Amino acid sequence: MRLALIPIIVLLALLPYCSNSLCSCQGPIQSVEIRVGGDGVATVTLVASVDAGVTAIELPVDPIAVTIDVNSSASSIEWMLEDGYLYIASPSQGTVRVTHIANASIENDVIMLNVRTNTSVRLVLAPTIVLLTLPENIASIKTLPGGELEIVFTEPTTISYTIAQPITTITTPTTTTSPSPTTTTTRPTYTQTTSPATTTSTTATTLPTTTTPSTPIAQTTSSSPITTQMLPIPLSTIIAVAVIVIVLAIIIVLIIRRR
To answer: Once rounded to an integer, what is the mean pLDDT over residues 59-72?
Structure first.
């Protein structure tokens, strides 16, 4: 099988110097999908039919050559990229799946893709992609689960898009001012106790003054004149004093008479 591919490989080497008429046919593209990720990178996937021999497939979007990946239902194939065409040498008829990253142009944060095919193209955009131009001849538009946008169109067009910038919300902290505490100065209140005047054998005028029960003497305050308070004499004390005086008088009289 590999020996049968040697003439085909030689033919591929001569393709740059030959016309496309040397190819057995131009492979019909069955489907094209362009998927734009959140980073703005567009990945192109196409499925095409190939015959035994060499088949030329015109790529709908210019590729980055080193990213091309070709998978085939045939046992083994060889391929070469030349002037936007992918030449595939296959030992038998089958289908190929070609995947590559699109070679897009960028200007002022705007990304542009040139799509050149009349085959139905399925364009899938990530939620962060903002489409700036709509394709021509749109067949359908719908939103996929996850927020992706799907557009199906069927004509060559230029797709322009950009990446949405995240919105930054600046939150200003709110400062709550607590009310200032009110300081209340409490002055001490002095209570004056006025003892009622008591009428005894000796009459005295008593002014209102603050007294201490445990000290039976007059108190002197700086805010009032000095006041002498006379305490009442109990009747028993008077009688006792009178008896003592009488006894002393009798004793004195007796002493005098004896002399």
So the answer is: 94
